[in-house]
Amino acid sequence: MRTAALLALVCLTAGCASTAPLQKDKNYPAAWPDISTLGSDGRGLEGSYANEGVAVGGAEPTILLTSLFPEVTKVGPSSAKVVHLKVVPGKPDSHGNSQARLQITLQGDVRYHYECDCTCVSGNVFYVQSSGGGAIGVIGAFGQANVTLTKAVDGSLIAKIFSDTAGIIILVPFYTSSVVWARFPRVGD
Amino acid sequence: MLVCCVGMVTGCTTAPAVERGYPAAWPGYVALRPGGTEFGTELNGTYANDGVVVIPEVGEKPITLASLIPPLADGRPQPNAAAFAEAKEITLRVVNHQREGYSSINWPAIEFIADSKDGKEGVWVEAMHSDRAGGKALTYTLSGNGVLHGVPLIHYRIVDHDVLLTKAADGSLIAEIQNTGVGMSLFFVPYFSQSRIWARFSPRPAGAHRAAPGNSSAAAARNP
Questions:
Q1: What digits encode the pLDDT tens for the residues A50-76?
Q2: Cα–Cα distances in Å, from A123 out to A39, A93, B177?
Q3: Could you give the CA distance from residue B42 to residue A77 in angstroms, rounded to a whole number?
Q4: B3: part of which helix (H) or strand (E)?
Q5: CB-CB neighbors (< 8 A) of B111 in chain A
Q6: Which chain A residue is nearest to residue B71, measuring alpha carbons?
Q7: Looking at the DSSP assignment, which residues form a beta bridge with residue A87?
Q8: What is the value of pTM for the model shown?
Q9: pLDDT tens digits, one per residue of A113-143
């Protein structure tokens, strides 16, 4: 019982996301342009971006935009060169935030279309990229990865990937988190 | 646990196609060649969107290849579904890809491609190798995806609709559509049900927009 309560507590802390406007932090590369805003309804995201971008804070220096969409959406093929994004905003709440649909089109000789739910909050587009957890014996953990999309002042797409995991090992709670910043150049629409 | 056990035996049928209801009047059933990164590529080709499906005790009915394209992950229709519905023919391309986190393993995927007035529209579907067809086939989930329906402990079930793709001797695309239900009823009575229907789509020379015959003919056969 005590273990279950503890596990529930640490799991509740996993995947907590800030709804504040996206801010540069110490990991944001100094050489990258400043962060802009998408507007309250997220429509400023609309545009075409290179699928291959650069990343800092992760295992690889390059990252594919197609790998950042919600896992369940199964966006492919990853060989696409250009990704077009468009936000279809929903009705805003009293804070100006709204549930919205993110339309994803992989462009090339063949076009592939996808859609997923997202939240337009504080001038950013936010969604859960993946989440999951489990327990085996005396180990239990829950993890989640959230993606926040915005733009840089030069029009490139900026993504902040925040991943965290919380759990317990023999009644000892643990928590880890990581942040990856990614940038995808804007390409001609 | 019981559901898991029943689920584990789901789809373990390896009976020859004819014993699983493959229509005797159709050209011979051809399993896919085993192979690594090339697996399933003999399905590459263009097929008539209008085909036929044989339903037990009913007979042949029309079916479209577009109807075998899965919806979006959340169950909504594909955004380009209209283009596929209107297409006279659909091209299949089997490709290999690497899933995130599984960089050393190649997975097959199927690209469904249709011409539209604005260019080529595609749907990309993750697939898997399968031995369920008594030989190799390429399989994917049409809908269901292991979603639990019903009220736990009272009556619940998992229903999956899977498609297994192979070919016929004349080059037609053969789709075995399996509906599998696994679940438990009141007093923990397990049940398992599986049904299948067979669909066939004629091969078409790429780009030849002509009236789809529904039934394939030997003259329409070609090597993909």
A1: 999 999 998 889 999 999 999 988 898
A2: 5, 14, 45
A3: 20
A4: helix B2-9
A5: 77, 110
A6: A114
A7: A102
A8: 0.81
A9: 999 999 998 889 999 999 999 988 888 999 9
